[in-house]
Amino acid sequence: MRYILYLFLFIGTINAQDITLFNDKGYATAYVDDNADIYLWNGTPVAYLVESRYSGPVVIGFNGKFLGWYINGVIYDRQGFPAGAEEHRSNTFHRIPSVKGVKRVSPNKAWPEAVPAIPNLGMNWSYISLGDLLSGGR
């Protein structure tokens, strides 16, 4: 009976699909798990997605800091420039991702700060890297 339980747990792990986020150079930098938590590629939990009443999904750090918007598979910074994107939403060459780090336990979520009005969205990449943007949520 125990082996059947292990088999179901293993199958459940296979079916879980993380969404990989690539930076402007095409490197896998972060991922979104099925709980809408965002982890750096090394397994460090940094942020989560939450639905905003006015602007759709937004990125909030576990420290409560507003980090940006998540619109159609692209993470935009506070100025409205893309900092990272899902593979099918980016025009950069994507490198084969390395092995993900061990996923660490997510911390408690701090009270989120207010979400600002969404600016005009830019086409050029943000001056801040995806890793740095998300690390602001620790």
Question: What are the key terms here?
Answer:
138 residues, alpha+beta, eight-stranded antiparallel β-barrel, 2 helices, 8 strands, 30% strand, disordered N terminus
Describe this protein's structure.
This protein has 138 residues and is of the alpha+beta class. It has one domain (17-135). The chain is built from two helices and eight strands. It has helices at residues 2-15, 130-135; strands at 19-22, 28-32, 37-40, 45-52, 56-61, 66-71, 74-76, 82-86. It has an eight-stranded antiparallel β-barrel. Strand 5 (56-61) and strand 6 (66-71) form a beta hairpin.
List the helices and strands and how they pair.
Blueprint: H1 2-15, E1 19-22, E2 28-32, E3 37-40, E4 45-52, E5 56-61, E6 66-71, E7 74-76, E8 82-86, H2 130-135
Antiparallel strand pairs: 1-2, 1-8, 2-3, 3-4, 4-5, 5-6, 6-7, 7-8
Contiguous low-pLDDT stretches (5 residues minimum) are: 1-15
Total count of strands: 8
Helices and strands, in order, run as HEEEEEEEEH
Q: Count structural domains.
A: 1
Question: How would you concisely characterize the structure shown here?
Answer:
This protein is of the alpha+beta class and 138 residues long. The chain contains two helices and eight strands. It has helices spanning 2-15, 130-135, and strands spanning 19-22, 28-32, 37-40, 45-52, 56-61, 66-71, 74-76, 82-86.
